[in-house]
Each structure stands twice: as C-alpha cells, then as structure tokens.
Specification:
The chain is of the alpha/beta class. It folds into 2 domains: 147 residues, no CATH class; 214 residues, Alkaline Phosphatase, subunit A (3-Layer(aba) Sandwich), CATH 3.40.720. It is built from 15 helices and 5 strands. It has a 5-stranded parallel beta sheet, with helices on both faces. The chain is elongated and about 85 Å long. The two termini are 13 Å apart.
Length: 469
C-alpha cells in the first residue's frame, strides 16, 4: 500500500503507542516465564512440558481449523489429516519448549544472541504481515500472526535476560523505562482516535481500540468527520427521473438481467456527482435509464446484502425461512413464471459464516443453473451473454452476474501507476469493470431482443471517509 509522509507518521505514532504498552506488559510476562523456567530446571517435571504442549496444540489446532474453514478447503479430503498433523507437531514442539528454554538460557552468550535475533526478525515479520496482508480479511490468520509475534517477542526478552541475577543499576533503569512507557501509552490512548484516521492503520487501530477499551480509557464514540460538501450545480449527468408509480412496467416477453458490482460506491458514477468519468459506459446507461435517487444496502457485507436482494427480505428472515417449503427466492418465482434462470458469481460470497449460508449455497439462490468461479468480469459477462444468446425464440431468461473486481485487494491495471494509492487502484478496477460492462451491453443490443437490465451494488467502499477503513 502506498503511503505518504503524513500517513507514515500516523502509522509510526500509532504503532509506538500500542507497542509501548505491549512491551511493558511483556516484561511482566517475561518475569513469570523466567520463574517458571527456573522451576522447570530444578524439578525437571514432564508435566510442565505436557502443559506447554497442550496449550500450543490447542492454539495451532484452532487457527488451522479456522484457516481451512473456507468452502474449498473445508471440502478437501485431506483437511482433517492435515489439521491433525499440525496439532501433533505443535504438541511435540510445545512439550519440548521447557527443555529447550532451559538449555538456551544456559547456553553461551553468542548462541543466545543468535537465537534471540532470529526470534526478533520473526516477530517483526509477523507484525509487518499482520499490518499489510489482507488487513480486513481472515481474522484467524491475523490472530495467528499476532500470537506468533507476542510469543517471539517474549522469547527474545527471556533470552536477553540473565537467570537468577538480581537487578542492578542497569536493570533498574530498564524497569523505570518500561514503567514510563506504560504510563505514556495510557496517557496517550484517549487521543488515539486523532491518529487513527488513515486507512493504513487498520490493524493498529483494532489493537489500540481493544486495548484501550479493556483499560476503559478510550471514548466509546465514532470519529467526528467533516460534513459532506453539497454537490455543485451542473456536476451531474442528465438522466430520467420517473416516479415509482409511473415507472414503465416492461414487456412480459423481456429477458431480465441483474448485474451487481461488488463494492461500487455511488459517487464513483458521474450520474451521482462524481467529478471524474471513471465509468463512462455506466453513466451513458444511466442517462437513458430510470435512476434510483436513494437506495440503501441492508448490510455492508456482500453475503448478507445479496441474500436480501435475491430473497426480497432481510438476511435474518431468509435464514429462518429458507427451510420452509413455501419460501421462494426471486429466481424460483421467475422460474415458475416461465423464465430460464442462470447465475454467474464467485464462490467467495459464501466464505464468511458458511454454516449460515449453507442452505442458500446448496440451493444456488434458487437458480436453475449456477456457475461459481473466480473468473474476471469479461469472462463472467461473456458466460451470461452466451446463456441469453442460446435461448430459444420463445424462451425468456433471467440472468444474474456478480462482478467481483472492485473488491479489495485492488489489483488495478496498466492505467494505474506502480505506486498508486488504494483509492487510485480502486478507480482503475472501476475502469476495467466499466469496459467489461460496455462490451456486455453492446452484445445485448446486438441480439435485438427486448431486455430489462437492472444494475446495482451489494454495498459501497470506504476509504477513511468516516474514520474507518
């Protein structure tokens, strides 16, 4: 992610604020581990090793199971054996930890420094990955990285201290420094919201907010942002404004096409006030279409929003009603009305809360034909067009295609510079999506058959607009 000097400074201050308290707390943990290590050295108990093994195995087992809970990995035949092997390996490593710790503490200074350096590099790598790798996705992965970073940092602290030695002048200076860092961190937490506005601080924000609320010193309020400036006259593309009661009903022989674009902001379109034409094809379509002035997503989440869209009710009601024999989704209603139905969407929409969406996923949202793939927008829209083109002269079709590209991570395209910011790469994704939709609309027009096209989004996208990410 590209960061300017101001963003980098904010990130640095935020990390320092969070880490100051963390380092002080690690000192207390280190003292406890130091005492435990000396007890293990004296007693040589295998019970301590088994306890370590159980703790490590439980943590690794939970993380491994969570990381493989996606639709593809959950159905993999080797999932259970792989997780089981990881748990056994973690138990063996954890059981060996007390003995290894004692030997390292007794090792020569050079050996201890080498191992401590390796652990320090590993801790830094975990922190870096946690801050930059899929910052809004896969909480189990971030929990694993955070836990590994803490364990590695504790290991560094243990290896760099001398066992059994009373704290001299240098030790008292270190203790005073840690205490001062903890006090400064606590004093600075109430002002943390001013440092946490850039979206680049997503994981640091989560940690600081959680720690601050645990200490009951962070205000439980939203970040105050400047009000949205009113649109200037003449910035909107002309379009038809038709009251709902006067909307043309459309012919019963029309084919129906529903296009949903993931994470498409309303203000990305000139028809809603965008100053830059990133999506000229959609703006041209809006100029000759009925444009809804206000449409609100039922949830800022793809799975829940699309469920509400296709069920005609809120997602919670759909979850409760989907097993009822009389409950019908929109594609099923249209199927009874004589439409051939097909859907083209990425399977990722079922990756979150898979157990809740399993009945809908098994039903394919009620479509007669469903193609789940990670194909890019041009391929997915080509599949939708070919389905319509294959219909017989007396057949009617209903097609839904969900375009995933604008969703993060923003890959951008050749039009975006290599050091482009997240917002710029998002706009590049929009331009690429607009090109695919332009080609699709041209194919619909070339068919010469009447078609009703509905284009919407599951939700928008935030770039620090309201203090979030």
């Amino acid at each position: 992610m590209h960061m300017g000097p101001r963003d980098a400074a904010h990130l640095l201050f935020t990390v320092c604020l969070a880490d100051a308290a963390t380092v002080a707390l690690l000192a207390l943990v280190t003292a406890g581990i130091d005492g435990l290590a000396r007890r293990v050295a004296v007693r040589g108990s295998s019970v301590s090793g088994a306890l370590y093994g159980l703790v490590v195995a439980a943590a690794v087992g939970y993380a491994a199971w969570a990381l493989t809970s996606g639709r593809t990995m959950a159905a993999h035949p080797y999932r259970c054996p792989a997780v089981g092997a990881a748990v056994l390996a973690a138990f063996a490593a954890g059981a060996a930890m007390p003995g290894v710790l004692v030997r390292l503490r007794r090792a020569r200074r050079g050996v201890r420094l080498t191992v401590a350096g390796g652990l320090g590099v590993g801790a830094g790598a975990c922190v870096l990955l946690n801050a930059t790798l899929w910052p809004r996705l896969y909480p189990a992965l971030h929990g694993l990285l955070s836990g590994a970073a803490v364990v590695a940092a504790v290991g560094v602290s243990v290896l760099l201290t001398r066992s059994g030695k009373p704290a001299g002048g240098r030790g008292r200076i270190v203790a005073a420094g840690l205490a001062s860092a903890l006090v400064l961190a606590l004093l600075g937490v109430p002002f943390a919201d001013r440092l946490l506005s850039p979206p680049v601080t997503a994981n640091a924000r989560a940690w600081t907010t959680a720690a601050g609320r645990w200490l009951d010193v962070v205000p439980h309020r939203a970040v105050v942002v400047d009000p949205v400036a009113p649109r200037r006259a003449g910035t909107m593309v002309p379009r038809r404004r038709v009251r709902a009661e006067r909307m043309p009903a459309g012919s019963t022989s029309d084919d129906l096409v529903l296009l949903t674009v993931d994470a498409l902001r309303a203000d990305a379109l000139a028809t809603y006030g965008a100053a830059v034409l990133d999506m000229p094809a959609l703006d041209a379509l809006a100029a000759e279409s009925v444009v809804v002035e206000r449409a609100y997503t039922p949830a800022p989440h793809t799975s829940y929003a699309l469920t509400s869209l296709l069920a005609g009710t809120c997602a919670r009601t759909a979850f409760e009603a989907v097993e009822r024999p009389r409950f019908e989704l929109l594609p099923e209603l249209l199927g009874r009305a004589g439409y051939r139905t097909a859907a083209f969407y990425p399977s990722a929409i079922f990756h979150v809360d898979p157990e809740r969406f399993e009945p809908l996923a098994a039903r394919h949202f009620g479509f007669e034909r469903a193609v789940e793939s990670f194909d890019p927008a041009p391929v997915r829209l080509d599949q939708a067009a070919r389905f319509l083109e294959a219909l017989g002269p007396t057949e009617k079709g209903f097609v839904w295609a969900h375009i995933f590209e604008p969703h993060e991570p923003y890959e951008g395209d050749a039009l975006a510079p290599p050091d482009a910011s997240a917002r710029e790469r998002y706009r590049a994704e929009l331009r690429r999506t607009d090109g695919a939709i332009r080609t699709f609309i041209a194919r619909l027009r070339k068919r010469g058959r009447p078609v009703t096209l509905v284009l919407t989004a599951d939700h928008g996208e935030e770039f620090g607009d309201h203090g979030g990410h």
